[in-house]
Amino acid sequence: MWRKELKTNIRTIDELKKYIRLTKLEENQFKNIVKYHPMNITKHYLSLIDFEDPDDPLKKMVIPSLEEMNLSGSYDTSDEKSSTILSGLQHKYPQTALILATNICASYCRFCFRKRLVGLSSREVVKNFEHATDYIKQHEEINNVLITGGDPLMLRTEVIRGFLEELENIEHLNFIRFGTKVPVFLPNRILKDDELLKLFRNYNKQIYLVMQIDHPKEITSELKRAVKKLLRTGVIINNQTVLLKGVNDKPEILANLQSKLISIGINPYYVFQCRPVKRVKRSFQLSLFKGLKIVEEAKTMMSGHGKRFKYIMSHKTGKIEIIGILDDEIYFKYHQAKDPKNYGKFFKRKLIKSAGWLDELH
Predict the structure, then answer these.
(1) What is the CA radius of gyration of the chain?
(2) What whole-number distance in Å separates Cα of residue 156 and Cα of residue 172?
(3) CA 25 to chain CA centroid, nearest Å
(4) What is the separation of C-alpha 53 from the centre of its chain, rounded to a whole number of angstroms?
(5) How far is CA 215 from CA 46, 62, 239, in A?
(6) Alpha-carbon distance 337 to 259, whole Å?
(7) I want to staple 179 with a disulfide (CB 3.0 to 4.6 A). Which of 76, 134, 148, 301 is the partner?
(8) CA–CA separation, 174 vs 305, rounded Å?
């Protein structure tokens, strides 16, 4: 049923025109944009958008904007290419193997940091899962696998079962993670597939879902029911949010989001600084200075459980926690590091209030 639902997705500007008014110039520009980065929106998610509100945050996240014509930034801001061992397998941090299982999502976020491949090329997607697991078997320092993409829950349950069966007998793996936004975009993928829930329930290793919920409006009754079903299988759900200009860049919105997540059994995990991705940076990235102010003010409105997340920059050198500002300096700490010498390193840079990324600081 959920696969049939996907066939009703909005994928063309002509279909979008039923919901939003566009001038002829905007229509032509949008059509040009989606040639480079396709549009794909489920009817469920579309129903959550208030098209009468020009500032609707959900609309901003999935509908193209003219700012996407701006090419400042990079398509590989975290230098995933240098960590790629074979097609679809990355090994950046010793403990974690990352598998790109697909280049498809239920809907396409306009701020996606893998904009270079989602809905486009499958060159970076895993071609032979057995080759990937052979590598993992040979590297006993790997204690977990992150299956991501695209969105791996877009794969058929039979395919996911095959992945899990391949990984189940690798003794040095403690847990498996799936990166997904499917429960937000397409809750029926969870609600209408008992086989997937059964698979998760009966799996012998711990499964984590790393979800991405970016605004309180995404926490619908359907999402709550999907989350409840997932939690009953023994899956643990963490959430990572991207701090986005015009979406969740007010302290009360960010605080409300984290509090709602806690109320339905989802653990706040990361709040990510938006990466300087081409066709994304101009539209969505805040400065680090503004980001820190929002995060710290939001934390004053939350309980301890709500503010367990770390404010993180996923840089090419590692995951860098953004700590705070003192006088005219901004402080950081390596939460994860590509170079082992940087583990736990605490460092500072001269504050530049307009800078949105470490490379812009001196």
Answers:
(1) 20
(2) 27
(3) 32
(4) 25
(5) 15, 13, 12
(6) 30
(7) 148
(8) 25
Q: What is the CATH number of the domain that holds 51?
A: 3.20.20.70
Rounded Cα–Cα distance for residues 362 and 358 (Å): 8
**Pairing status of strand 144-148 against strand 96-100:** parallel
Q: How many CB atoms lie within 10 A of CB 105?
A: 24
**Tokens 């403990």 sit on residue:** 95
| Residue 73, token pair as written in the block | 């930034």
Strand bridging mode 310-315 / 267-273: parallel
For residue 11, count CB atoms less than 10 angstroms from its CB and return exposed for 0-12, middle for 13-18, buried for 19 or more: middle
Closest Cα to residue 71, out of 299, 336, 280, 352? 280
Return the closest-CA partner of residue 144 out of 193, 91, 194, 196.
91
Question: Per residue in 61-101, pLDDT tens?
Answer: 999 999 999 999 999 999 999 999 999 999 999 999 999 99
Number of domains in the chain: 1
Contact between 78 and 314 under an 8 Å Cβ cutoff? The reply is yes
Tens of pLDDT along 263-297? 999 999 999 999 999 999 999 999 999 999 999 99
Number of neighbours of residue 20 by Cβ within 10 angstroms: 13
- The number of beta carbons lying within 10 Å of the beta carbon of residue 194 is 12
Tokens at 181, concatenated: 């936004």
Cα separation, 281 vs 188, whole angstroms? 32
- In 60-213, DSSP assigns E strands to 84-86, 89-90, 96-100, 144-148, 175-180, 206-211
Tell me the CB-side half-sphere exposure of residue 356, using CA atoms within 13 A.
20
